[in-house]
Each structure stands twice: as C-alpha cells, then as structure tokens.
Amino acid sequence: MNHFINMQLICSSRSIANSGLVDFPTELKALSEAAVLSDVAVHTLVIGEYFTKQKTKAALKAFQHMISTGVTPASCSYSLLITALAVDRSDDNFLVNAKKYFMEMLVKGFKPNTGSYMLLLDAISCRESEGKAREFLEEIKAKGFVPVLNLCQFEVGPGYFIEAMAAMKIYDDLEDSITDDDMQKVFLEWRTNHDFLDNESMKMYTALLEDDNVEQAQEVFRLNTERGILPMVVVYTCVIETYFSFGKTKDALEAYQGILVAGVAPNCYTYTILIKGLTDDPYFIGDAKKCLLDMMVRGMRPNAATNTAVFVGFAKKEDKAAKEEGKELVKVMIRKGNGPKAREMMQVLKDSPTPLIRRVLDIVFSKANVRGVGQRQGK
C-alpha cells in the first residue's frame, strides 16, 4: 500500500509540474522519496490529485481536514491550495480563502513560490478593485515578504505595479471573450508553457528592429525585460497569427478589432502579420487595404513585404475593378509619403510567377502612378 501511495505521489508531482502553474515539483518529489510517507505527504497527495482534476472545493476540504487532524501543512501544501483557489473563478470565496492561506503561509515563515503568488495577484487584479490590490500588496510586505524580481519591478517606479495588474486584466478579459475551442486550447498551452510568449515577444522585438522601428522595439523590451510585464500587443498579435494558422480569417480580423477596443496599440509587426494574413484570403483583400491605410494613419510605414502582399492580393483577383482599386491605393500611399519602392518590391516578388509579377507592376507602375513611385524610389 505504501508503494502504491508513493507512486501516486510521484505521478501527482509530474502532473503538477506539467501543468506549468506552479514551480515546486522538487519539494513534492522530496516528500514522495521519503522511506516512510508522512501524514503531510499523504494529505498533500490528496490535495494535488484534486488540483490536477480541477476539483477546487474538494482540495479546500482536504486541506482543512489536514489542519483539523493536527497535521501541519508543508510549503507545497499551501502553494497547491493557493494556486487551485486562485485559478478557479467559479466561487468568489475561493479568492477570499486564497488570500487567507497566503497570509497564513507567510506567518508560518514559508516562502511562497513564484507561480502561486503571481496567479494570486492575477486573480486579485481581475476580480477586485485597484485599492484592494494595493492593500493586499502592503499586507504581504508588512509580513516581510520580499518578492522575486518580477514583482519587485512593479514597485520600482510609480505605476509599475498597476501597469502589470492592468496587463493581467486585459489578458484575462481577452481569454474570457474567446469561445473558439481551438483558441481555448492554445490559451491553455500558453498558460502551461511560459517560454512560448516570451519567445514571441523576442521575435517581435527582433522584427521591429530589422525594420528600423526602434521606438516600438524599445517599448516591447522595456515592458518584457525591464519591468517583467508581457506586452499585451504580443499576446494579441499571437492570437491574430494563431487564427490565421487555423484558417479562421474572420476571427483574426475580429481579434484586431478587439485590440483597438481594449486600448492596446498595435505596432508595425502586428500590422505586418495582420495584413499579410488577410491578403491570403481573396474575400478579405478590401480589409487588408483598410488595415494598410489605418497603419499609415497611425504614423507607421509598411515594409516592402506588407505593401507588396496587398498589391499581389489585388493582382490575383484578375478583374478590372480590383486593378483600379489597387491603382487608387497607390495614389493614396504616394500622397501620404509611403509610395511603393520599385527595387524593394521586385526583391519581394523575385520568386513569384512571371504573369503575377506583371499584373502587380501594371497596378503599381501605371502611367498615372509611375511619377510618384519613381520619385520615392530613389530615396
């Protein structure tokens, strides 16, 4: 029987580690490898099982039963329970208890792990007022809790903590607003694979630098590296890109509209992903054109690949109306100082079929447009 429970504890430790929500599998592993399983190990196993099965109320009862029988919880016992309570929004009392046991954990001299307190702060930011969030932060500081780097950064300057909490709120609102099953699976993967969005943030930063969008790149760096806050523009851009990968162009466009409603400013990389994705579907070429113009209205200059994708979209329709619409777009771009550059466009088109290249050039370099384009080619 002891061997069976031991194996169950090991399996529970692995499940919790794989969840990505908490970072204390080492402590659980130590409990499981003891020659004789202690009472706290057995109780923690039960809490862990309920946690991995998303049975929060049962996990809370198991924890309370452990205390009532005189068994002293371990640090990971608290962390498991706090994490389970923080991520479950089905009952407001779960958050009340999460805060209660977090404070109790500090009183007993335990050091909370990063995953638990970040998830707890996330829950507070989404379900309570800014004032209560600040009050809780002051309470844990009064207990002598010194957070690790990410949380310390919220307190380095005025508004840092609130900036982070606001980002958490936007992220959770976004996740709650999406009902698409495929996208929900992706959100779960993002929550359990923290490296993915960090890598996407670095990819955005690099792409912005390559296109000389230095200020936008610095803003991504400032939030992600200096303040430890994942830029929400990274999350929204990933949502847009993921929808395109599923072939759900309409949803990708709605995600872009959502970014504007949320008050998150799209950057050049966001527009590049959006516009190129829209041009892959002939039914959305008009929307791609609108987004290109919106990008320029916001003072951003599309790169050659983005420009060319829109004109390729018009050329592929192979009808007079699309051709004329493309020509008009060139005129607007020239007036805004963003006329297409022939040399750059040809570099993008070099591997395209010759007939398609000719149709694109016929749109961009028509007699009505060639003078304006030519003037900007030499710049």
Low-confidence stretches: 1-11, 17-25, 148-159, 373-379
* β-sheet strand percentage: under 5%
Give the end-to-end Cα distance, rounded to a whole number of Å.
79 Å
Question: What structural class do helix, strand and pairing data support?
Answer: mainly alpha
Q: How do the strands and helices of this protein lay out in sequence?
A:
Blueprint: H1 2-19, H2 25-32, H3 39-52, H4 56-68, H5 75-87, H6 92-107, H7 114-127, H8 130-142, H9 149-154, H10 160-177, H11 181-192, H12 194-210, H13 214-226, H14 232-245, H15 249-261, H16 268-279, H17 285-297, H18 304-317, H19 320-335, H20 342-349, H21 354-364, H22 370-377
What does this structure look like?
Residues 1-11, 17-25, 148-159 and 373-379 have low confidence and may be disordered. The longest helix has 18 residues, at 2-19. The chain is 75% helix and 0% strand. The chain has 379 residues and is mostly helical. The N and C termini lie far apart (79 Å). It has 22 helices and no strands. The chain has helices spanning 2-19, 25-32, 39-52, 56-68, 75-87, 92-107, 114-127, 130-142, 149-154, 160-177, 181-192, 194-210, 214-226, 232-245, 249-261, 268-279, 285-297, 304-317, 320-335, 342-349, 354-364, 370-377.
